[in-house]
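Notes from the pairing session

We agreed to fold both candidates in a single pass and log them together. This is the raw record for the first candidate, unedited. Please don't reformat it; downstream parsing expects exactly this layout.

Candidate A
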Amino acid sequence: MSTVIGSGPDLALIHGWGLGSRVWQPLVEALSPRHRVHLVELPGYGQAATDSGDFTATAQALLDTLPTAVTICGWSLGAMLAIRAAVLAPERLAGLVLVGATPCFVQRSDWPTAQPAALLDSFAASVSTRPEQTLQRFAALLSQGDGAARAISRCLLAGLRESQTPASEVLRRGLDWLRDVDLRPLLPGLGIRSLLIHGENDALNPLAAAQFLAERLPAARIEVFAGAGHAPFLADPDRFVRLLDAFCDAPASR
């Protein structure tokens, strides 16, 4: 499900775990004069119906709701879904923007650039009994390391207060995806032009994860926001909008 605002080339914004499309609200006024902005709600968030689809099925369902020649901009878990959607149907997309992205969220024997599984276990243990408090703790983690951490935390917490808390099973399913999904084998074949935007001090998905993506995706470039954490679009929204405008205006390389 998505809300559509503005006019121009289609641009879909996909939120991450725990925070619905409200997280993009500070950018909508600047983006909507030049883009037809699709504020996507993942299943179980906002007014979107909850479904039982797996990660790949959810990526396909996302594609099915969007027009052809759309630029998909995904943040965090939304970026992982955007990568999967682009692998499924690259011909449907005009471009791919990955914000605070990683191909694999949890540490593995050959992948230290990630979070320990214990972090997800901690969140999974608390979402069933204290979902609101769990999301508040997560919002604090998102702003960690950012030079504007207090302001970003206030923005994220305000968004949580103004949004309906997803059901516990929705939150747990997202945590399962973060634990199980490893997109690294899919990257070399994904030739769609891509822009990676990452905070220098991202405490959730380290900058090295984005650098790995930039090296493996054949048509990618990376923009690093100095002093920013996991939400660079809130740390410097003006620069973020300029980058999106320029990327969407550039001719597609097909």
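Candidate B (folded immediately after A)
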Amino acid sequence: MSTYYNQNTILYYNGEYLKAADARIDLYSQTFHYGYGVFEGIRSYRTESGDTKIFKAVEHYDRLRASAEALNMPYHWSAEELIDATYEVLKQNNLQNAYIRPLVFAPANMGFNKNTESHIVIAVWEMGLFLGEKNLRVMTSPWQRPNPLGFKIHAKATGHYVNSILASQDAKAKGFDEALLIDMNGHVAEGPGANMFYEKDGVVYTPSLGNILPGITRATVIELCEELGIELVEKHFTPAELKTADSAFFCGTAAEVVGFESLDDYTFPQPWENSIGKKLQKIYKAKVTEAGVAVS
């Protein structure tokens, strides 16, 4: 039937638990026609103790609300309510290591006037690492991130991801694993679905906020650097500057932490196994599964 669901898959839809195969949306939805919706990407993990744990559930559902409010979408659910519903959906689908997709979408509306209601769905499915496990051959994309004066760039809005799809498809068609987008000022922004960091002389750098999605995994990596005593700098930098780095990596809920092999014609010289990124990759995985690996 689908990569994501079968006849037995259950999802949460406007307060009810329904079979995914039976769920329906209005084909006149403003979201379907105009990309006017907001969503989250969340992961749950089987922890070392055998429990199911949604990683940073409150932060994700708080961001969902903030995204909806940024787009003037009605939003009346509490984080606690949606977290409880998510655990129930995971339970009903017998999933622990899962990807979770809440989506707030608009009703039928062929105009641009403000809606008086919104709908919500929470779907879950098994998914491997979004960008795989091997280090990536990355291409500087000719596609730029949208101008933040034209969009609420901090919102995780459905329509924004047309930009991501175009950049990613272009990179893969040219033989690369993924794209790296710049912003309108020529500074490095992010990947199509992930934030990025690089290491140079023992210092970790990441693009400043403003033209990027403020990722929750990005914030987690910054927290880990603080815990590890690793100097971290948020700044604007160009692709040329990035091509002097020792190593680099993407991070995101779906991707977790994944290293770069190269950017365009530049191969990062530091072996990934010896990089700060690799250390963060290992500790991040331990953190989400509550494995108890000491931060050192």
